[in-house]
Design goal:
By secondary structure, the protein is an all-alpha fold. It is about 55% helix and about 0% strand. Helix 5 crosses helix 6 and helix 7 crosses helix 8.
Length: about 110
């Protein structure tokens, strides 16, 4: 959340006054977001973002119309059209999401249905 979000309950003025050690102590005391150990952090592998993705190819492999593809994966039909006609390029997050859709569309649908 940012400073302009009306639902944000963060006291940004107080946060800006905190030292790094005070911020770390506050983070460690949050039971809802335990910090990862150095070992746990080391288990994460750096992701190489997808550079190019063929949206039409993914959609046709799944035997879906633009409209159904958009509905199934929470993207507007217009966005699908823009990507397929190369008027717009998916951003890095969208390209990564589309790669997951290509790899495991059923898992994405189940995750988004909840």
């Amino acid at each position: 959340m940012n400073e302009n979000n009306m639902n944000d309950k963060t006291d940004w003025a107080a946060l800006k006054k905190m030292t790094d050690s005070e911020i770390e102590l506050a983070a460690k005391s949050d039971p809802d977001a335990p910090l990862l150990s150095d070992y746990e952090l080391s288990q994460f592998k750096r992701v190489k973002p997808v550079q190019e993705i063929d949206v039409r190819e993914i959609r046709t492999k799944l035997h879906l119309s633009q409209e159904k593809f958009a509905i199934f994966f929470g993207v507007s039909k217009r966005t699908i059209q823009e990507w397929e006609q190369h008027r717009k390029r998916p951003n890095a997050t969208s390209r990564n999401f589309l790669r997951v859709v290509e790899y495991a569309p059923d898992v994405v649908q189940r995750a988004l249905a909840n």
